[in-house]
Amino acid sequence: MDDDVVNHFVHASSAARYAAARPYFDPMVVERIVRWTGCERFARALDVACGTGQSAKALATVCESVDAIDVVAEMLAQAVALGSHSCSDSVALDFMSNR
Question: Please, are residues 58 and 26 in contact by the beta-carbon 8 Å criterion?
Fold first, then answer.
């Protein structure tokens, strides 16, 4: 990442602390999506900036496939460690390298 961008999640311990402290409200959001769209199942979803995979995990309850991407490999590693199966094939993207 660029020198002028601060990445607070670059260390595995930061990702673990984030995962432990972040409120898990994602199922409520997924429920609202289902109500709003009138669809109970979706073929595919994309979780951009998936972090520790909590949203991807919730989306997996209503989606056949969830793609999860993030710029921080440590956050993705935490997602896999926490059992967010939908993040097991996730990719850490370096968005800053293409400036």
Answer: yes
